[in-house]
């Protein structure tokens, strides 16, 4: 039996389409958040919402101690009951170094003492984000901003915003987030072994496991309790032991360590392949620590904690996916009082040394539940985490307990937004609702919390704190003692059902395809046809930012004024930097902030002249009058230079005043550059995995033989193919032995499919499509239209406007209907930055209309701009990085859903620092980037082609925003467009050797070993699908799993049957 792999974001372009988008015309939630204290505030969210153009009042009040304080306030009229209100504001204080500023709301009937906080500072602006929900509709309300300590400090505010959402709007925003972060569109293609698509095949799709960890605490009461065990395993895929791993449970008296109970509980979770969090190593609350340690001397306590962490972590190495290392350290500090200020830091360091694959968490209450607790505000949490990381701690996870009274969803979401800026996985670790509420209210509030958590993209898992004890739970139970659901249990079951795809049935369409939107997870797919069954499983700123690398080698260097000839041969003055003693074989990364005077906007180019060479362009930016824009680029020095000059020019040649600030030039040796690439590859293209082997009773098996083999790669790496591959078995074998992606070089282009008007012939691309189907290779659709008139059918070039409109309509409908659901991408309007054939004849909206029609015709395909000289050089004014971004923005404003960035990559001499800089800027758009037509100019010899190709491929593969790479190396009898990988006998040329070397380097291959004394085997693998064979004695088990992109170690349980 074969399973469809996990639907994870990095598999999106291999198996999946775009996310499902709901039709919604209300306000879209803005998840922007900022941790930095900025020189100037950002613009208000939602353009200010209902606070737009409203200035705050300054109120004075008398405190209980008689002191008078003044503070800014907004007077709000006619707020609506039940609406969710999202509040944000930028704050600066003037007569204190720092202050915790709290926002509160006072109405005629109630006071919400905290709706958001921020630690504000003197001299810069800090971002407060929060919100509230009202249970009544007050006619007048006050929204106040005050120092939480009651001091009379000067609070300045700017860019305030208050945006209301109805309950329906809030829910639709949640669902939009869920559809984007937790689901994917999937297309299943069914064909026979020859690649012929099969219409009418019966499809059954069943989700067999969920990707999102959702679980509960369990207690020792689950041991031997088959009803509890059955109830739990039918619902949850994650667990945590409520108390049984805590120090007072495992060592109640000094030296008497007993792990019997957690061992038995671990056997249960192993036997049922449930991932488990380790909670906890230490608890900073002395009331929850073993009584016998409270009066120990510092040396004795140090000895005891060393023994505790060594014993616990060694025994359970690689068993738990997380460890809560020092629980609730924001509220308590028992160990730091006793052992010194670095005690917690030492705990984390030691834990990482013993179990380096476990994700180490801070775990804290009252961070997400409320903002009324000064000990655990969101900024306090962030500050403590940064302190630990600066101390050298490997801190991998954000644990938010979630013991709620009345949840405040807008506040909860705002706090998650701010924590998400840390870029670490967030877990809700102990979710429940206070027992002061009725069971019905608990259920209502629980649903609010769970929906908020599941819909937030930064939340990686949720654990309920609902372990069943003898007669109760800590605060909230899901069932009674007979495992009959209580209202909270009904809520959980409802959400589990809602958040799972379940079983889907249908038939393939005329394209041999079946589509659905599914939650991330593992699926089993059954296809039946003719009694045969197959089972398969960016912005202009008011002030420049600080220089990168603190300025690098031009730190503290004063720029000079350089006289040079402009591009129009007119003498102009330019700011310049004089550089001495540049080294050879060195990559130089350059950046600066630029503003201009004398014109509204201009494309500014940075150039370099050395004593033996000139780099016409090493970076560009579209600069504007009155604000600062960021230029980033670089150059490669192959030989040393004693003297060089960096200078700036207006690409149009006009005389304008260019001002440069925060310039930086950072050198990297070849070795340093390669190490940086490899670090990115290890982070973005690989993941640690731990395989746990046990018998059916959960007993871990030491010494089991493991063989792990990567059977498919997650990263799409392919080449163009031509019709020459048809019937050419050596070409076909050579291709599919290497590549998992393809694009047709010319065969889909209009001049190929309709060389004469009305005579459409798809025979050749159909046959090529059968080849890629048969070998399960994904294919890009290239292209629908080409703006270059030289590559437009000759009969099209002389058509009148109405005739051309008819022809393009027929072309797009015919092509897209014929190949609906067949191609993962479509290059809709090729090279539109350089050419405008259709817009000249059909009007300025022609391209926009092409994209709109393509999206309607094939909504699951990703639509790409595809362009040359964006990445290859910055000397082409038509296709600078900012020109590309601007064109994308124009299409987006016109209503086009633009899904992808296509960069052709036809290089002569590649400039890796410039490539990386351009990719960095494009990555700010948050869209998948593909290198779509990579080759090296045939003006170079084959060995040089190979060397430059390797540089380009390594740069692409190591950049986190690159989602796929396609070579432009289709083979013809005469050769290839610019560069071939092989000769006509499929013997590698130097470029082919480079490709084969990199394919081998970027694949895990086969890994063999034995399970350790914990029954575990760990390895670091490239993302993709794996088969595993386990042998233990005379028992064998086979399994398969997928490594998706994630910061956490992948844990996979394998059971050996008796």
TrEMBL record:
Q: Does the keyword Signal apply?
A: yes
Top-level lineage group: Eukaryota
What are the GO MF terms of this UniProt record? Answer: endo-1,4-beta-xylanase activity
Pfam families per the record?
Glyco_hydro_10
What keywords would UniProt list here? Carbohydrate metabolism, Hydrolase, Polysaccharide degradation, Signal
What start-end ranges are recorded for coiled-coil regions in this protein? Answer: none
| Family of this protein | Belongs to the glycosyl hydrolase 10 (cellulase F) family.
Q: Which PANTHER family match?
A: EXOGLUCANASE_XYLANASE-LIKE ISOFORM X1, GLYCOSYL HYDROLASE
Q: What is this protein called?
A: Glycosyl hydrolase family 10 protein
What lineage does UniProt assign to this protein's organism? Eukaryota, Viridiplantae, Streptophyta, Embryophyta, Tracheophyta
């Amino acid at each position: 039996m074969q399973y469809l792999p996990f639907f994870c974001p990095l598999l999106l372009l291999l198996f999946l389409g775009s996310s499902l988008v709901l039709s919604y015309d209300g306000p879209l939630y803005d998840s922007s958040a900022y941790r930095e204290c900025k020189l100037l505030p950002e613009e208000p969210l939602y353009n200010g919402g209902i606070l737009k153009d409203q200035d705050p009042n300054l109120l004075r009040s008398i405190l209980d101690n008689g002191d008078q304080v003044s503070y800014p306030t907004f007077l709000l009229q006619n707020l609506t009951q039940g609406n969710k209100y999202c509040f944000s504001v930028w704050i600066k204080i003037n007569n204190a170094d720092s202050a915790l500023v709290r926002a509160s709301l006072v109405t005629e009937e109630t006071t919400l003492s905290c709706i958001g906080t921020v630690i504000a500072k003197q001299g810069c602006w800090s971002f407060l984000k929060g919100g509230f929900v009202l249970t009544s509709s007050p006619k007048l309300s006050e929204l106040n901003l005050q120092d939480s300590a009651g001091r009379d400090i000067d609070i300045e505010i700017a860019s305030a915003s208050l945006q209301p959402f109805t309950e329906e709007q809030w829910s639709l925003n949640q669902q939009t987030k869920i559809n984007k972060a937790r689901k994917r569109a999937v297309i299943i293609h069914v064909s026979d072994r020859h690649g012929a698509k099969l219409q009418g095949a019966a499809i059954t799709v069943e989700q067999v496991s969920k990707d999102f960890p959702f679980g509960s605490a369990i207690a020792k009461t689950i041991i031997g309790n088959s009803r509890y065990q059955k109830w739990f395993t039918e619902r949850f895929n994650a667990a945590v032991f409520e108390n049984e791993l805590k120090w007072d449970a495992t060592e109640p008296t000094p030296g008497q360590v007993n792990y019997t109970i957690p061992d038995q509980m671990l056997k249960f979770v192993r036997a049922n392949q449930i991932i488990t969090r380790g909670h906890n190593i230490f608890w900073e609350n002395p009331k929850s620590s073993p009584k016998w340690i409270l009066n120990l001397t510092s040396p004795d306590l140090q000895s005891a904690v060393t023994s505790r962490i060594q014993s616990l972590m060694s025994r359970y190495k690689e068993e738990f996916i997380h460890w809560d290392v020092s629980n609730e350290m924001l509220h308590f500090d028992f160990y730091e009082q006793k052992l010194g200020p670095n005690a917690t830091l030492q705990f984390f360091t030691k834990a990482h040394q013993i179990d380096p694959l476990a994700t180490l968490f801070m775990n804290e209450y009252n961070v997400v539940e409320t903002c009324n607790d000064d000990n655990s505000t969101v900024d306090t949490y962030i500050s403590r985490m940064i302190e630990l990381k600066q101390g050298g701690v490997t801190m991998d996870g954000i644990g938010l307990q979630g013991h709620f009274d009345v949840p405040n969803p807008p506040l909860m979401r705002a706090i998650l937004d701010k924590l998400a800026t840390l870029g670490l996985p967030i877990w809700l670790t102990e979710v429940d609702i206070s027992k002061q509420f009725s069971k019905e209210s608990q259920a209502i509030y629980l649903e609010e919390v769970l929906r908020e958590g599941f819909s937030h993209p930064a939340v990686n898992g949720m654990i309920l704190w609902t372990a069943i004890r003898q007669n109760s739970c800590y605060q909230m139970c899901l069932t009674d003692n007979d495992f009959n659901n209580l209202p909270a249990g009904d809520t959980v079951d409802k959400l589990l059902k809602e958040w799972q795809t379940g079983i889907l049935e249908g038939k393939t369409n005329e394209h041999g395809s079946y589509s659905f939107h599914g939650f991330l997870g593992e699926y089993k797919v059954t296809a039946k046809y003719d009694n045969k069954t197959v089972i398969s499983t960016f912005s202009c700123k008011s002030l420049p930012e600080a220089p990168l690398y603190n300025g690098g080698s031009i730190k503290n260097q004063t720029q000079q004024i350089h006289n040079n000839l402009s591009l129009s041969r007119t003498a102009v003055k330019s700011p310049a930097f004089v550089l001495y003693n540049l080294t050879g074989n060195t990559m130089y990364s350059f950046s600066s902030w630029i503003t201009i005077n004398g014109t509204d906007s201009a494309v500014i180019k940075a150039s370099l002249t050395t004593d033996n060479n000139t780099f016409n362009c090493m970076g560009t930016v579209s600069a504007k009058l009155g604000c600062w824009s960021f230029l980033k680029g670089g150059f490669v020095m192959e030989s040393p230079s004693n003297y060089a000059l960096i200078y700036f020019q207006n690409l149009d040649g006009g005389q304008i005043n260019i001002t440069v600030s925060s310039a930086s030039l950072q050198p990297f040796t070849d070795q340093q550059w390669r190490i940086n690439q490899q670090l990115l590859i290890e982070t973005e293209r690989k993941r640690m995995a731990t395989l746990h082997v046990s018998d059916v009773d959960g007993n871990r098996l030491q010494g089991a033989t493991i063989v792990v083999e990567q059977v498919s790669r997650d990263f799409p790496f392919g080449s163009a193919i031509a019709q020459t591959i048809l019937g050419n078995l050596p070409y076909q074998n050579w291709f599919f032995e290497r590549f998992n992606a393809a694009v047709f070089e010319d065969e889909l282009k209009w001049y190929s499919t309709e060389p004469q008007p009305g005579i459409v012939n798809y025979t050749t691309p159909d046959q090529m499509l059968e080849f890629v189907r048969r070998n399960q290779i994904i294919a890009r659709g290239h292209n629908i239209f080409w703006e270059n008139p030289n590559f437009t059918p000759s009969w099209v070039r002389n058509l009148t406007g109405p005739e051309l409109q008819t022809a393009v309509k027929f072309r797009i409908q015919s092509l897209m209907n014929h190949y609906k659901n067949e191609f993962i991408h479509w290059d809709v309007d090729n090279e539109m930055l350089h050419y405008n054939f259709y817009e000249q004849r059909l009007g300025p909206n022609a391209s926009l209309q092409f994209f709109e029609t393509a999206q309607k015709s094939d909504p699951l395909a990703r639509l790409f701009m595809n362009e040359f000289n964006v990445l290859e050089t910055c000397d082409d004014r038509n296709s600078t990085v900012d020109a590309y971004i601007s064109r994308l923005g124009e299409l987006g404003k016109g209503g086009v859903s633009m899904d992808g960035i296509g960069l052709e990559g036809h290089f002569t001499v590649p400039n890796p620092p410039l490539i990386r800089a351009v990719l960095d800027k494009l990555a700010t758009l948050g869209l998948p980037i593909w290198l779509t037509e990579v080759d090296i100019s045939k003006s170079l010899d084959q060995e040089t082609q190979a060397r430059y190709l390797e540089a380009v491929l390594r740069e692409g593969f190591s950049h986190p925003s690159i989602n796929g790479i396609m070579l432009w190396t289709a083979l013809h009898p005469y050769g290839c467009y610019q560069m071939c990988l092989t000769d006509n006998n499929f013997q590698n040329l130097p470029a082919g050797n480079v490709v084969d070397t990199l394919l081998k380097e970027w694949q895990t291959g086969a890994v063999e070993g034995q399970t350790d004394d914990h029954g575990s085997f760990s390895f670091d693998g490239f993302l993709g699908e794996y088969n595993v064979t386990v042998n233990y004695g005379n028992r064998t088990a086979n399994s398969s799993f997928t490594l998706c992109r994630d910061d956490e170690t992948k844990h996979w349980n394998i059971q050996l049957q008796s």
